[in-house]
Amino acid sequence: MIGKKAGVVKKFRDKVQSANGGLDFWTFHCILHQEALCCKSLKMDKVMKVVIQTVNFIQSKSLNHRQFDSLLREKDHIYGLPYHTEVRWLSRGAVLRCFFDLREEIEQFMEEKGKPVLEFHCAEWMQDLAFMVDVTEHLNNLNKQLQGRNKVVMQYYDSIRSFKLKLLLWETQLTGGDAAHFPCLKNVCTTQSVADMKRFKDKIMGLLLEFEQRFQIFGELEKNFKVLCSPFTVNPSDLPVRIQFEIIDLQCDSDLKGKFAAAGLNTFYQNLLPGYPNLTALAAKLLCMFGTTYLCEQVFSVMSINKRKLRSRLTHKHLNHILNLAAAQDVTPDIDELVKTKRCQVSGVK
C-alpha cells in the first residue's frame, strides 16, 4: 500500500504528475500513527521488560492478584495495576505511572513471593523508570491532543510544533541538571545524583530528531499554514507571486477582517468572495487534508463492539445504521417527527 516504488501512493503520485505537468502533491501518513512510532525511539526496553514481567506475574494469576489487592487495601490504596498492551497506545503510560506509585508495595509483595525485583535496588534503573514515567506521560498528553473530531491539519501541526519546542526546553534544562518538568525523575534523584540527569538529554534529542524526521512535511507546508491561519498578518512579499495581490486586497478589506475574527476557517473561506480564486484554492487544498485516521478507527471500534458472535440477530442493515450514526459528525433527532410516525397502542378498556 505505501511502498516507495510500487505502493498505491507512488502509483497515484506518478499518475497525478503525468496529468498536471509534473507538479507534485503533498502526502503524509496518519499523524497519530507517526506520533506513536516516535515513542518507540526511546528504546528503554530494559525498563519495560522488568515492568511487564512483574505486572504479568501479579495480574495473570488470580491468587497473586487477590493477595496484592489485599495488600493495597491494607495500605489504603484504592487502585491496582492495569494490564499493558502494545495495541493500546496510552496503556504504557498508565502501567508505568501505577508501577512507579506502587513500587514499595510491589517490592514487598515480590519479596514475599520469593521473586525479588533486584532492579529496585539499582539507582540508575530507578532513574530510568522515573524518566520513562514522565516522558511517557508527556507523550500521552500529546496523543490526546491529536485525537477528536472536527480538526483540521493546521491544528495537528500546532500541537506537534509545540511539543518539539518543549523537547528543546527539556534538553536545555536536563543539561543543567534541572528536572522541573520531570517530577518523578526529580523525586528519585538525590543531591549527589543530579548530574545523572544529563544523560537523559540524549534521549530527548533522539526523540526530537525522530519528530523532525517523521514530520518533515510539516516544515515544507509551514508557509502555507501561516497564509491560511493568519492571512491578515503575513508579509505578501514572502508569498508566491500568484497570491500576493489577493493577500494585499484581503488585508485592506476591513469588512473581511472582522468576519475572519468572528468565523472559523471553514466558514470564512467557504464564503470568500469570487475575487480570491488562488487563496480559495489553497484553502480548499489544505482544509480537505486528512490529518489522522481517527474517525476510521473509531468507526472500526464501534463495529467491533457491536458485531459479536452472540448477537446473531444483528443484520448487516442494522450494523450499517449503527455505523452511520457513529460516523455522523452532528446528528440531531427530530423527536416530534419520530413521535408522529409511531402508532399508539390504545387500550380496549373504556
From TrEMBL:
<dbReference type="InterPro" id="IPR012337">
    <property type="entry name" value="RNaseH-like_sf"/>
</dbReference>
<dbReference type="InterPro" id="IPR008906">
    <property type="entry name" value="HATC_C_dom"/>
</dbReference>
<dbReference type="GO" id="GO:0046983">
    <property type="term" value="F:protein dimerization activity"/>
</dbReference>
<dbReference type="Pfam" id="PF05699">
    <property type="entry name" value="Dimer_Tnp_hAT"/>
</dbReference>
<feature type="domain" description="HAT C-terminal dimerisation">
    <location>
        <begin position="276"/>
        <end position="324"/>
    </location>
</feature>
<protein>
    <recommendedName>
        <fullName>HAT C-terminal dimerisation domain-containing protein</fullName>
    </recommendedName>
</protein>
